[in-house]
């Protein structure tokens, strides 16, 4: 059906009847804007309105659908043609309405997915629940649009679309976990342990994530893609491993202490730097002095200061080949340690540093993990000479 032609025909016959758009609308129970849209050809009257409209305009239904006057001898032939056009129009309108519903369902699903990631924190499982709901709605919209297919094909295509959507979200979630160091949004289990500090384990179908030192300044994440760690075997350090672990600080390895920038960057990456400090280099005697801006007992829960000084000293001696001593100054107290004391008395030091090479695995075992053993820390800290 030609909506422009029909609209113009409605306008002509309305004027013949001496009716305004508002008057015709009142008689039909619609607004004058609706009449205007019909006459402009922007919209077609609903099927339920065709008969009342033709009666008000005193034209036949056949003429209304044709958009012109029809002679009596042509009436039968034109009626069949108009009927076919009306059926086609109805079918198209139903399809369009069906499509609008499907699109609306998919849009709602997309909005729910967007809100699930933007509103809820990764620690909350609600983001996962709502994103799955959004994917189900998107899939439902796709399923509705495939009604021309057989039921089996619709189910297969719908299931494939759902898995593709969920797979994309899980992949994006993994990128967020690995790049931004956060808990996974998609997980089936969350377990909190209080063994070596607070550890939270997040279990995903494809990998596990450990949040070590959770909710502390030294928090860090370990992504276990092989699912090889448990709470008793996952590498745990009292410090932020992502900042001061051997794989991060080995970049500052040098044969000479004279590079102030390198020494500064090294101690900035090591524990206790968060307390604020300045440093001096004794080039003549190959030593370094670190002046911290706090007392030695400040924030010293669980021997944190002693652990920091031991870790910093072993790391610095291992990385800077000609460094001979380090003095740590706090408000009111100083601690001095020499390379000789460390090399002769620190357990397994020569497995950590073998000639010019640092064994990263041995460092993890004999330095990093040992910081969790209080008796070990107390024994090694006795090597430091306290002054003041």
UniProtKB/TrEMBL annotation:
Domain HTH cro/C1-type as annotated: residue spans: 14-64
InterPro entries in the cross-refs: Cro/C1-type_HTH, DUF4825, Lambda_DNA-bd_dom_sf
Organism whose genome encodes this protein: Claveliimonas bilis
Pfam families xref list: DUF4825, HTH_3
Transmembrane annotation, as ranges: 101-120, 126-143, 155-177
Lineage: Bacteria, Bacillati, Bacillota, Clostridia, Lachnospirales
DNA-binding found in the keyword field: yes
Highest taxon in the source lineage: Bacteria
Keywords from the named record: DNA-binding, Membrane, Transmembrane, Transmembrane helix
The UniProt record lists the keyword Magnesium: no
Protein name according to UniProt: HTH cro/C1-type domain-containing protein
Gene3D superfamilies: lambda repressor-like DNA-binding domains
């Amino acid at each position: 059906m030609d909506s422009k032609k029909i609209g113009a025909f409605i306008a002509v016959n309305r004027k013949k009847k001496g009716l305004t758009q508002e008057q015709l609308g009142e008689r039909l129970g619609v607004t004058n804007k609706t009449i205007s849209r019909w006459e402009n050809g922007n919209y077609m009257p609903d099927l339920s309105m065709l008969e009342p409209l033709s009666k008000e305009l005193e034209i036949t239904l056949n003429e209304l659908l044709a958009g012109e006057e029809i002679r009596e001898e042509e009436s039968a032939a034109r009626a069949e043609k108009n009927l076919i056009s009306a059926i086609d129009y109805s079918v198209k309108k139903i399809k369009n309405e069906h499509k609008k519903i499907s699109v609306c369902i998919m849009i709602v699903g997309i909005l729910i997915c967007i809100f699930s990631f933007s509103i809820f924190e990764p620690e909350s499982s609600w983001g996962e629940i709502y994103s799955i709901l959004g994917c189900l709605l998107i899939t439902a919209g796709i399923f509705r649009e495939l009604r021309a297919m057989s039921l089996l094909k619709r189910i297969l295509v719908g299931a494939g679309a759902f898995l593709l959507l969920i797979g994309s979200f899980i992949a994006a979630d993994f990128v967020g976990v690995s790049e931004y160091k956060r808990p996974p949004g998609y997980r089936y289990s969350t377990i909190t342990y209080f063994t070596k500090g607070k550890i939270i384990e997040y279990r995903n179908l494809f990998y596990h994530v450990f949040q070590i030192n959770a909710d502390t300044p030294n928090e860090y994440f370990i992504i276990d893609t092989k699912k090889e760690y448990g709470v008793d075997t996952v590498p745990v350090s009292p410090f932020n491993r992502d900042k001061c672990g051997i794989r991060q600080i080995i970049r500052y390895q040098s044969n000479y202490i004279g590079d102030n920038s390198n020494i500064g960057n090294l101690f900035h990456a090591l524990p206790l730097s968060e307390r604020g400090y300045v440093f001096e280099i004794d080039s003549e005697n190959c030593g370094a002095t670190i002046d911290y801006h706090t007392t030695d007992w400040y924030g010293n829960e669980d021997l944190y200061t002693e652990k920091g000084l031991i870790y910093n000293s072993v790391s610095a001696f291992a990385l800077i080949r000609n460094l001979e001593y380090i003095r740590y100054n706090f408000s009111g107290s100083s601690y001095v340690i020499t390379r000789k004391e460390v090399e002769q008395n620190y357990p397994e030091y020569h497995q950590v540093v073998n000639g010019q090479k640092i064994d990263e695995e041995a460092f993890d075992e004999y330095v990093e993990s040992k910081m969790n053993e209080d008796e070990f820390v107390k024994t090694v800290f006795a090597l430091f000479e306290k002054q003041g």
